[in-house]
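Q: I'm writing up a methods section and want to include an example of the input and output format. Could you take the sequence below and give the corresponding predicted structure tokens, formatted cleanly so I can copy it straight into the document?
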Amino acid sequence: MIEVLRAGALTTVQDLGRKGLRHLGVTAGGALDPVSLVLANRLVGNPRGAACLEFGTPNARLRFEADGFVALCGADCRIELDGEPLRTWWRFPVRAGQTLALKPPPFPGGEDAKRFPPPRGAIVYLAVAGGIDVPPVMGSRATDLKSGFGGFEGRALRNGDRLAVGAPSEGMLENRRRYGIRPPSWLDAAVPGADGTLDGPLTLRVLQGSEYTDFNAESHRRFWSETWSISSQSNRMALRLVGGEGPPLARKKNRSEDLLSHGVLPGVIQVPPAGLSIVLMADAQTTGGYPKIGVVITADLPRLAQARAGSRLRFVPCELPDAYEALEREARSSRWKAPSNGPETSHTWPGLAPNPAAAGLHGRRMTSKQRVRTNKLRSLTI
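A: Here is the clean output for your methods example:
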């Protein structure tokens, strides 16, 4: 068991989400950054989709009631086990009665800001050997906060909650060695701090959405050329973007009629009447009526999820073959497993299950060649 001494803000149980239920109105949900969740699970010998704890803000304390192994992956944070400093992207043993504390990392200020980069990322994942053992709902242990089911009683964790832990994989507890992995390169170089002290904004590859041609030329120019910022009014459902100069993004007068509700999914960029874009994320609704100007490719969604409020973004055009290539690279690198010996090893981060719609097929028909390629991609994933 794990006792939650301090839950922190928006700490939930998450896995890789509920697949194949969007036509029934059930969102997929799951980890905002599935790459970090999978890597944390690999470090402790779990299946790639085992349930973990997702910390929206790393400010929590947990007490372990049994021996085990844990790993933390994702954003930079301060970690202490009974006062001993530890590192993210490493696995380490815990003993019954020990307390794990997660604290926000310090933001360098003054002269230090010139010498030290700001902390990377926003979300941290804690994997424990055996996985967080909550009842599965519709094939997943992920928490759906809006609908109030899954995870631990369908809600974010609170002080005093107690979480059961599953049985670890065979031999895991006998190997007490600590080891770590290098985080994905995009976490090092492509997650700007909210104060913008890193060079340039986060660049996201985007394909044209189903209603892209409905927008006027000035909106096209602004969408691609201007820098946008993530609003603090963002959540697991969507990131609201602010910034840019000039008039709001708008459709042509002859294409400005209301749209019928249609299917949407994570990565879709909607433009409400106010003209400021919304990027749908893991807990996105299944249908929507706002026009879609673009789709962030699946390979870039974990990077976006790790960007803090205030981070600056730029969109760059991407073609469908490039989106497939990004998915293929992830699929080829998805066979990484925790090493059996050695104190440290490098890795290539695991891929996500290819999603043709999020890769840019949203609102389009697949050709027979694209179907063959998509099936091949699915066969390459873990």
